[in-house]
Design brief:
The complex is a heterodimer of chains A (115) and B (593).
Chain A: H1 5-23, E1 26-27, H2 28-39, H3 50-60, E2 63-69, E3 75-81, H4 83-108
Antiparallel strand pairs in A: 1-3, 2-3
Helix pairs in contact in A: 1-2, 1-3, 1-4
Chain B: H1 2-15, H2 22-41, H3 46-57, H4 60-71, H5 74-92, H6 94-123, E1 134-140, H7 153-161, E2 165-179, E3 185-192, H8 196-200, E4 206-207, E5 219-221, E6 234-237, E7 240-243, E8 246-247, H9 259-262, E9 266-269, E10 289-294, H10 300-317, E11 329-334, H11 335-385, H12 390-418, H13 420-426, H14 441-467, H15 471-479, H16 486-522, E12 532-536, H17 553-569, E13 573-579, E14 587-592
Parallel strand pairs in B: 3-9
Antiparallel strand pairs in B: 1-10, 1-11, 2-3, 2-6, 2-10, 4-8, 5-9, 6-7, 12-14, 13-14
Helix pairs in contact in B: 2-3, 5-12, 6-11, 6-12, 6-14, 11-14, 11-15, 11-16, 12-14
Classes of the chains: A alpha+beta (115), B alpha+beta (593).
Amino acid sequence: MGEKPDVLQGTLALMVLKTLDVLGPLHGYGIARRIEQISGDLLAVNQGTLYPLLLRLEQEGAIASEWGASENNRRARFYRLTRAGHKLLESETRDWEQTAAIIARFFKVKAEDLT
Amino acid sequence: MRFLRRFLARLKNFAIGRRDDKRLREEMEEHLALQTAENLRGGMAPAEARRQAVLKFGATQAIREDYHSERGLPFFENLLQDVRFALRMFAKSPGFSAIAILTMALGIGATTAIFSLVNVTLLHPLPYPHPEELVRIEDDLPGAGTTDAGISIPEFKDLQRSGIFQYVVLQIFGSANLTGASQPSRMQYEGVSPAYFAMLGVKPQLGQTFDPQDQTPGLWKRAFGSDPHIVGKNLRGDNDLYRVIGVMPPGFRDPGRTVGERNTEQWAALGFEEDPAHPPSRSLRLPLETVGRLKPGLTVEAAQSQMDALVASMRKQFPGDYPADSEWTVRLVPLKENLVGNVRQSLILLLSAVALVLLIGCVNVANLLLARASARSREMAVRQALGAARKRLVWQLLTEGLLLSLLGGVAGVVILFCMKGFLLRLIPESMPRLNDLSINWTVMLFALAASIAAGVIFGLAPARQAGGLNLANTLRAEGRGSKGSTQQTRTRRVLVVTEFALSLVLMVAAGLLLRSFWELYKAPLGFNPQRVMSVQLWLPSPNDDKTDIYATAAQEAVFARELLRRSRLLPGVQEAALGSEPFRCGTTATRAR
């Protein structure tokens, strides 16, 4: 995933936040699986890169984590969205939609529209 | 906000030294177990299921490193590690470290010393509010071949009325025998017109300053045994009576042109109305200095052009007082220029010279470091082969360099502090603002900046080399015991040549200086100065002739004869003589046995 690290980092963080928002508390594997299901091969390899990102979001205060029991009854770290995380998700979503809308408009423009 | 929280969390982890990754390992293990279970459900063989899970997870070591650097502050962690390592290296070769640190201490100490001089003289020459408004006003008579010819009282009044200045002040410097205090002493005084203190924007520590409207004379004495009741007391200067009206704060100095003028300790008000001997006349120029403060916002150039217009109209109005062939003009010189103009060049030269010494020191230490680096290139190569990033190695070498120069800087400043008294005596007295010379925060900051700059300069040489190391060749060549690559040798040669060239410049300059000093030292005095002491003394010459007890030569002779008689009676005195100017003005000389 070395090609566009900045964009990918940003979008990956947004995906994590949205996943936690939709599904509630999840462990790392659950988040990775969910993102894989939706985004296809973006996280097909290097799933481990999720963990430094989770730590970063936690240190920023967007998510919190605690130990819990996983499906196969082993100890797993569960992540959940905090209030700050909810706000962050909202503002990031707005930003993202704005950016996407602008880019979409640029793609729609034809040569004759600019004269 | 988010960034702050993240930074604080990282800082906390860094501070409490949390380094373990137990949580990550546990999470990774769980992740892999869940993925393996998923793969098994998909129908894979157990071994293959585990293998695929690991592959999907990615490079475990890289992830752990990312996790680490996310948790703490990797920059500071590395820095701390480098500093610790560098200190160990220094301790391992104390001789090398001592030489390097001493070299830097010399360079940085000398540069800092000269900078402290530059700081007070060139950068902050005038300790008054709005110093840019202060100008010296000099009357020139190019036709008569004189510059700064003094000023007449009507001209002074013209200046006051001109609208160019907020204040115009006349000054005259002198010295007088001060009596009426516990001990008689010789005091530098300055006669100033009453607006003087208002112009310089300074308040008295005790009492009051002259009322700018008040034209009656008074005396202003600065420190008088720190007597808080000094205000209102009477003093005698050359037998003339003065009344103390206030005490100036300790830091206050006249912006005079010489040390004598700047060390003035008492100020007397000048009056120009009541002098029957000299009725004010335009052509009677008095040996006074004139200083003014320009109206706010007026540039010196604009003021000068207004001044020129004023002079032109005066010359037209009083052709008798200003004959055309004397070409009377008035010059406005910024006070700062006037004060530091003649020392600026020599100070800059001096600063360049010590900067050169510092540079030579840097090159020297760079060379030493380089020599050591070639001995250590095998270590570097091995570390790189084991996976150390080049950036980290370069940083480590830079840290070593910086640490060396910072230690050198600290040593330099400490030496400077210890030798302060000795160094101060080396500075010529004519240096402006010598009294205010101190090692303050600006100077310390300069020393720090110089240390960092020096450290970067000489740390770069070995760092660059470590960056460009050819692993295979180094490992092979060093294994065979060869000493350094051709590139290393070239860099070191360039450094040696640079050092030699820089030193040569300094050597020549220092040699020339020493030579002229030696010439001066050798120059014969014309007499044998051994065991000769000279004593300078002054007889009072009061303004009021009636109080002058040495008015006639006969009165003075009585004193002189008595002085010689008693001097000869002193134990240890072989011969005593008196003269108006045997070595300097107004001295007597005694020869000790």
